[in-house]
Amino acid sequence: MLIRRAFKFELKPNGRQARQISQFCGCARYVYNRTLSLEKSLYAKDNKHSFRYTEAANRLPEWKTKHPFLKECHSQVLQQSLKDLDRAYTNFFEKRANFPKYKKKFRHDSIRFPQGVELDEIKQKIRLPKVGWVGYRKSQNIIGTIKNVTVIRHGEKWDVSIQTEYDNIPPETTPSEVGIDMGVKRFATLSNGEFFEPISPFKREQEKLAKLQRKLARQKKESRNSRKTKRKIARLYRHIADSRRDFLHKTSTQIAQNHSTVFVEDLKVSNMSASAAGTKENPGKKVKQKRGLNRSILDQGWYGFFQMLSYKLERKGGKLIKVDSRNTSRTCPQCGYVSAENRKTQASFACIHCGYHANADLVGAINVLRAGRARLACGKSGAVRPLSAGTQRDLLQH
């Protein structure tokens, strides 16, 4: 099985290289935004107009003649920028994303090289076209053939993401199934009773971040002190993101190494973290509490956790299966009785029918495991059955 994998490292360019990479990002942003502006005018005339990469790429020689600074940028970087716009248009027309937006300076700056890259793992250096050999902080060995390399700005630092392709032979593992219930008090609870406490990196640094932002608001714009404060804020944001990513990687790796099949709830994180403010005509209720819950959900990084767990299980020959989350927190795992009264508090579950009581997150994980097994059984037999946990209510309806 062919696997595509990205290896991410911190890049360590010198002053000249950092300025050159930043200049390449500016050129790529210019081409992207100018092409988008032109395409928007064409789309305004005809809503059926679709972006064509070939036509956009043919404009580059003329633009290079009018703007000499584009000649200093590697042609691959400009072409890849247009391919990013092509992908954004495709996602829009296939209703997977909103209409493409203009790129802003220092916001998600990145460039990509599809070829011409060399790697020296012994010296911990990578050669980027027109930039030269750049050092990087090696944290793991790179496996496979390099397909492309992306350089990304994160605050004041640069990262390099090396995507490779290689044949993967999953090791033989003992079959093991587990259900996972996601939560705020407990990050993840497994059906075998194991659970992981959240680290909540944003919450931990929230007071310090707010203090720096208030300080920045009082300072004169574009002054030397305001630039210093901006750098401190950028470093703090990077620390928060790195802490969260490190926790998610360690947790997902531990689960993937110990289990071959993992069942999780099919959670719509974007819907769960939507604002409850409402409108002037129909104002929302408990807006402050909902805002705090949204912040906690996003701070946990559930979506990224599911992505990491999915590809790590795939490499080991396992699989991640999502099941319907309906009634998983209301169903008694002992008698199957379904009622909202079974869970009167966030942490405790007590069945009003049989008296069974346990941690609410553990009950949810057990029900997720049962729902996942039921889904697999129905898939193998060809039967059609709701993806909810096996309950008395299900038995009465069928």
UniProtKB/TrEMBL annotation:
One Pfam family cited in the UniProt record for this chain: OrfB_IS605
Domain of life: Bacteria
Record-level GO BP terms: DNA recombination; transposition
Ranges of residues in domain Transposase putative helix-turn-helix: 1-48
Cas12f1-like TNB domain residues: 302-368
Domain Probable transposase IS891/IS1136/IS1341 per the UniProt entry, residue ranges: 162-274
PANTHER family: RNA-GUIDED DNA ENDONUCLEASE INSQ-RELATED (PTHR30405:SF25), TRANSPOSASE (PTHR30405)
Protein family (similarity comment): In the C-terminal section; belongs to the transposase 35 family.
Protein name: Transposase
Organism from which the protein derives: Parasutterella excrementihominis
